Amino acid sequence: MTCGHSNKQIKVCHVTSAHNRYDVRIFHKECRSLANSGYDVTLLVNDAKDNEILDGIKIVSTQFKPNNRFERIVKSKKFIRNKMMEIDADIYHFHDPELLIEALWIKKKGKRAIFDSHEDYLLTVSEKSWIPSILRKHISKLFSIYEEKVISKIDGAIVCYHWTEERYQRLNSMTRMILNFPILTDEKTDIKSIGSRAIAFAGGISPQWCHKEIIIALSNLNNVKYELAGRIVGDYGSELQKLDGWRKVNFHGVLPFSDVMSKVYANASIGMALLDYIAQCKGTVGNLSNTKFFEYMQMGLPLICTDFELWKKIIEEEQCGICVNPHSVDEITEAIRFLLDNPDKAKLMGENGQKAIKKKYNWDTEEDKLLNFYKAIVA
Predict the structure, then answer these.
(1) Fold for domain 198-359?
(2) What are 281-312's pLDDT values in tens digits?
(3) CATH for 11-181+362-378, options being 3.40.50.1100, 3.40.50.2000, 2.60.120.260, 3.20.20.20
């Protein structure tokens, strides 16, 4: 592999100012795939932890840990730039919107620059509580102008949403959609609890995941538990605990992923993915970047999920769950009741989902896209 130089290993630097150094998409998927394909990979992270080498990837810290959003966006800049120059890579791959300016800066230094858009940032501005509502529309417009300028000038872009792909493609033909499908493992992931009267969720416990509606639905059902794990956002927990159905919740708090498997999913027979019609989903359209939907399929759990157009298409094609309106307690209640009362059908749905993951909804398919994208960038 060469980058305009013969017999030279391509040096790639992934840069994040906001994500954890072990982020699944950045480290476990993209960096590892590139390293396994022969690239010299460094991951530059914005924390104050020690540098390390893991799975052949050099993890380098800025040694600056921002205390708040302002420090992350403004003060991190000089630390990130200094480290980028020290690393001296051929290609820089950026993962956060505040790093668009760094992509343009490093491009002017004669390096190749890629921006990896994990979200549709024009849409998420409308939901950022830390931005005064009166300013959100203006900030979104300003960001749009700057985003267009940068994307049109850098070497390539990666996106997670099909509508973002369409927008970026008009600005830069070297745009590819690479989805967050799960990594296939050799580990046995069959759920032995199909037939148990329990539903499960592990992740952010916030209003956008419609836990209130789920817990109200539980109060309409007999002999059922909600295996729930994750970090509660704000005062939402106290609101949930006041509900009559909370007595049916087995709350585990924050758990490492291995414990999520053994204490949450292993004790449940249904996975709940009731994401609200938020801006990131363009209302009822949905997106395929949410890992929870595919996580349940990989585990062999039948899903009860939001009736997004994109999710509904998969559910109907693969026969792996039931779609409902996340605001309809009646629909949620009936879906849970059906799967609990029909364990054979629930088991078949779980098996169908698992087969679909092994066949097409997995990181192997996306890894091929990533590697072909990089080949085009370095050509």
Answers:
(1) Rossmann fold (3.40.50)
(2) 999 999 998 889 999 999 999 999 999 999 99
(3) 3.40.50.2000
